[in-house]
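Input record (one chain):
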Amino acid sequence: MVNEGVSVTFPVRGSSMLPFITGGRDSVILQRPACLKVGDVVLAWADGFHYVVHRIIALDGDKVTLMGDGNIAGVEHCTVADVKALASHVVKPSGRHCDLQSPCRMRAARWWYRLRPIRRYILAIYRRVI
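The corresponding structure, as predicted from the sequence alone:
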């Protein structure tokens, strides 16, 4: 449906996108990707064996490197053709839509990426509190 230009609401699971997307609770709105850039959250066929909803951390020609916001070190790889959809919004259980492309969200994601050395501790506290 995404290839036909239809936006699709897709429930996510897992904790790899904490704290921005909570698996089992939040959903993402997927759209056809037009122009990919570093910082975009995408649905991709990663490493040739599974789908992930992760953030693009590097683009090198046709090669894409992905990393979940809740991951500490692990990355996945795919090609631009393996990126199936762009996540434009997060839908919270209250029905509120959060724009993943807003300047504020993109700035927060950049800061979160820079916090990788201490992310483990922040996520441990976050998981205990939430």
